[in-house]
Amino acid sequence: MTTARIAVLPGDGIGQEVTAQAVRVLETVGRSAGLKFEFEHALIGGAAIDATGAPLPPQTLALCRQSHAILFGAVGGPKWDHLPQEQKAERGLLVLRKDLDLFANLRPARTFPMLVDASPLKRSVVEGTDIVVIRELTGGLYYGEPRGVEQFADGSARAINTMAYTSREIERVARVGFEVARKRRRRLASVDKANVLVVSQLWRDVVTRVGRDYPDVTLEHVLVDNCSMALVQRPTQFDTIVTENTFGDILSDEAAILAGSMGMLPSASLGGRVGLYEPVHGTAPDIAGQGIANPIAAVLSAAMLMRYSLNMGREADRVDAAVSRVLTQGHRTRDIAGAGGKSVGTREMGDLIVGELERGA
Ligand code: NAD
Q1: What is the model's pTM?
Q2: How far apart are CA 65 and CA 52, in angstroms?
Q3: What pLDDT band is residue 199 in, cutting at 50, 70 and 90?
Q4: 111 near 125, Cβ under 8 Å?
Q5: What was the pLDDT predicted at 338?
Q6: What is the pLDDT averaged over residues 281-296?
Q7: 263 in contact with ligand 1, CB cutoff 6 A
Q8: Burial class (CB in 10 A: 0-12, 13-18, 19+), 99
Q9: Ligand 1, atom 36, residue with closest C-alpha
């Protein structure tokens, strides 16, 4: 029996609750697939600040570097919001992404047929939506230099962030975009702001050049403002989207809404040797501790972990199918139940998915 070492970083708030269900799902699949998972838990975010004073303790980073993959929950919350930028809970995740060189963030946004009515958009608009947004994750405005705040003698101030990309950084994420598009419907939309930003002009030139290596993929360039409108007007026109860090942050949340709830959306961060898998949502302080969070995003993130880090595509398909069956049977957590609908809790939804996996083994 082979062993997969998984670093489990639940983080804060509902991160703790949903990650526990994702671990149960991995254990269940592992048992039937003859794979032993070794889960090692570590602190990150607010929980790490409380215990050690730092959002990413050195032992957590060391564990992540030595693991086959990382299963991540979410970090942050009002308790740590007052801290300076560099010490905030969310900083732990940003440093981890950078250290592991996780430059490509994959976020599928798909409307499940049985949940179309949970979307805030009309059925006629969202039905059939199936998009993957690939967001560049280690460059652009989030990391560019110079950055900082200048204080002036008259009491006023000036703040600077820089959107900077090298052609190498663009090329490697563009290649991920083309490769993903190739496994899907072979259409790639590269999103930029080339009518205004020079960095976007370089982005467009490099993506076009890389595209020559992928003649079987249809490439189009879309301005970010146009893309943002099109996502709510005609989301089915998109297949795979690749874009820079900040645009990707905003567009992937917009695409998320098409799926009905933040609680349904998984993600994978790839690039370096170790992949990191996490739900798109945050720590949801408004519902944390109540046992009502939707664990499906975390469970589908675990499926992505098997698909991309462990080369277990068949087992990942089994998890996706088990989730679909549970939804088809009518089970819902509160966020997707609709007004007045009956709902199950986090643990119960985990039981239902595990039960389906055991039946389908
Ligand atoms: P959020 O995603 O935590 O919550 C937004 C809304 O969606 C809330 O109403 C919440 O109840 C609901 N929601 C989210 N996930 C859900 C789930 N699984 N089931 C049911 N409902 C769910 O976003 P926010 O409120 O903007 O942020 C809260 C905290 O999380 C902040 O501190 C923020 O910085 C942090 N955050 C962390 C990450 C991360 O760790 N990757 C990502 C986003 C936000």
Answers
A1: 0.89
A2: 20
A3: very high
A4: no
A5: 77
A6: 97
A7: yes
A8: middle
A9: 282
Ligand 1 center from residue 198 Cα (angstroms): 33
Any ligand 1 atom below 6 A from CB of 296: no
- For the segment 323-329, the average pLDDT, to the nearest whole number, is 94
Residue 155's H or E segment, with its range, is none
Residues in the chain: 361
State whether residue 110 is helix, strand or coil: strand
Our answer on whether the CB atom of 28 is closer than 6 Å to any ligand 1 atom is no
CA angle 191, 92, 307 (to 5 degrees): 60
Q: Alpha helix (H) ranges present in 44-127?
A: 46-52, 58-66, 89-99, 123-126
The rounded distance, in Å, linking the Cα atoms of 291 and 279 is 17
User: Which residue do the tokens 């991160």 mark?
Assistant: 15
Residue 207, pLDDT above cutoff 60 = yes
Q: What distances in angstroms separate CA 104 from CA 116, 137, 330, one per listed residue?
A: 28, 6, 34
Nearest atom in ligand 1 to 285's CA: 28
Beta bridge partners of 106: 134, 268
Answer yes or no: 308 catalytic: no
Per-residue pLDDT band at 310 (split at 50, 70, 90): very high
What are 191's strand-pairing partners? 222, 243
Give the residue-averaged pLDDT of 120-138: 93
One-letter identity of residue 330 = G
Distance CA 121, CA 339 (A): 16
Residue 76 near residue 45, CB atoms below 8 Å = yes
Over the stretch 233-270, which tens digit does the pLDDT of each residue have?
999 999 999 999 999 999 988 988 887 778 899 999 99
